[in-house]
């Protein structure tokens, strides 16, 4: 029996691609590099800023101070958190359904707290989610299971009664290690359907509302 559903944030609950892409392209333009389109950078978002920089700068990345580039991306993004970011279709309906069924909800994201909490406050559908564990809440982050176990503990639910929904391989690894049911958000920033299927998750959800039938 599933008594709680835990979610990743970027690429699972929220489409943050345009705001993150704008931050990347701002830094690319600052360094006289060609900007990149959403179709190019979106699949790298779930792997973090370093992966996005690799997509943007390509083989020239070694010529730059990567730490400085990363900080520049984060600074711009922090000032423009929710210009375009929004919940994926049917996320609001899913959360409403879970609440009506008294299914508990939490978020575990590798996004740092200084970006996560202000962002959530700007998204009406997510502002009421109280249990949030970020990438820097503990000394470890996904794929380590400990952050997921912390969410379950805060919710007062046994890990075996939790489903974790995410869009990256690290999400599935963490869920399995935490003994939770693992589910891939196929609407998210997955590299491809074929790659996602190789993660051997328990569930592959093509629509957020599909989760309801597995509770």
Automatic annotation (TrEMBL):
<dbReference type="InterPro" id="IPR023198">
    <property type="entry name" value="PGP-like_dom2"/>
</dbReference>
<dbReference type="InterPro" id="IPR023214">
    <property type="entry name" value="HAD_sf"/>
</dbReference>
<dbReference type="Pfam" id="PF13419">
    <property type="entry name" value="HAD_2"/>
</dbReference>
<dbReference type="GO" id="GO:0006281">
    <property type="term" value="P:DNA repair"/>
</dbReference>
<keyword id="KW-0378">Hydrolase</keyword>
<dbReference type="InterPro" id="IPR050155">
    <property type="entry name" value="HAD-like_hydrolase_sf"/>
</dbReference>
<dbReference type="GO" id="GO:0005829">
    <property type="term" value="C:cytosol"/>
</dbReference>
<dbReference type="InterPro" id="IPR006439">
    <property type="entry name" value="HAD-SF_hydro_IA"/>
</dbReference>
<protein>
    <submittedName>
        <fullName>Phosphoglycolate phosphatase</fullName>
    </submittedName>
</protein>
<keyword id="KW-0479">Metal-binding</keyword>
<keyword id="KW-0460">Magnesium</keyword>
<dbReference type="InterPro" id="IPR036412">
    <property type="entry name" value="HAD-like_sf"/>
</dbReference>
<dbReference type="InterPro" id="IPR041492">
    <property type="entry name" value="HAD_2"/>
</dbReference>
<dbReference type="GO" id="GO:0008967">
    <property type="term" value="F:phosphoglycolate phosphatase activity"/>
</dbReference>
<keyword id="KW-0119">Carbohydrate metabolism</keyword>
<dbReference type="GO" id="GO:0046872">
    <property type="term" value="F:metal ion binding"/>
</dbReference>
